[in-house]
């Protein structure tokens, strides 16, 4: 309206269009600036949230010892529950490691067994044959054999 009143009596179409275009550019710039500020604000808020998420209780010796005691108690309770479940299920078998830890005589039991048997080991010599009886391929029969090139078959 201000441009129209200033240019009364003259050709003003171009002037009015130029004024409207400038005003629209200002409005678009304001919208862009506002959006960028909102985006930066959201980024700052997200960054603060991230910092808050990783900010925890500072670790001191007392805090750690309290946590460790609770953690050990929880582990002990879990082990007790597992042992009770195994006993109820009839799975009271010990593993090999547990057996050796309980009875150290088990590591020498095989030696005692052999000593009681009299250390007599019988060997069936018929299982062993003369090398001549074995059917091995001769190197000369192999077409791929190359004595110079040892990498070949």
List the helices and strands and how they pair.
Blueprint: H1 2-6, H2 13-54, H3 61-89, H4 96-102, H5 109-117
In short:
With 153 residues, the chain is mostly helical.
Descriptive notes:
- Helix content is 60%, strand content 0%.
- The chain has helices at residues 2-6, 13-54, 61-89, 96-102, 109-117.
- The longest helix has 42 residues, at 13-54.
- It is elongated and about 135 Å long.
- The model has no long low-confidence stretch (mean pLDDT 79).
- This is RWD domain containing 1.
- Residues 35-53 have a biased composition (Basic and acidic residues).
Question: For the report, how would you describe the main beta sheet?
Answer: none
Strand content: under 5%
What is the distance, rounded to the nearest whole angstrom, between the alpha carbons of the first and last residues?
Answer: 100 Å
The percent of residues in helical segments reads 55-70%
Mean pLDDT: 79
Q: Which regions are unreliable across 5 or more consecutive residues at pLDDT < 50?
A: none
Structural category = mainly alpha
Based on DSSP secondary structure assignment, what is the total number of beta strands?
Answer: 0
Number of helices: 5
Q: C-alpha Rg, in Å? A: 46 Å
Shape: elongated
H and E order: HHHHH
């Amino acid at each position: 309206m201000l441009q129209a009143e200033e240019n009364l009596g003259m050709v003003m179409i171009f002037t009015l269009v130029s004024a409207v275009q400038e005003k629209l550019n200002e409005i678009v710039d304001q919208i862009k600036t506002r959006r960028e500020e909102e985006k930066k604000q959201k980024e700052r808020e997200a960054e603060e949230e991230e910092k808050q998420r990783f900010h925890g209780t500072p670790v001191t010796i007392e805090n750690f010892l309290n946590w460790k005691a609770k953690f050990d108690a929880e582990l002990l309770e879990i082990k007790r529950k597992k042992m009770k479940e195994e006993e109820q299920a009839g799975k009271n078998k010990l593993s090999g490691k547990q057996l050796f830890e309980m009875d150290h005589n088990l590591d020498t039991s095989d030696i005692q067994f052999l000593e009681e048997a009299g250390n007599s080991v019988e060997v069936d010599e018929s299982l062993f044959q003369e090398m001549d009886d074995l059917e091995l391929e001769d190197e000369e029969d192999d077409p791929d054999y190359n004595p110079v090139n040892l990498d070949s078959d």
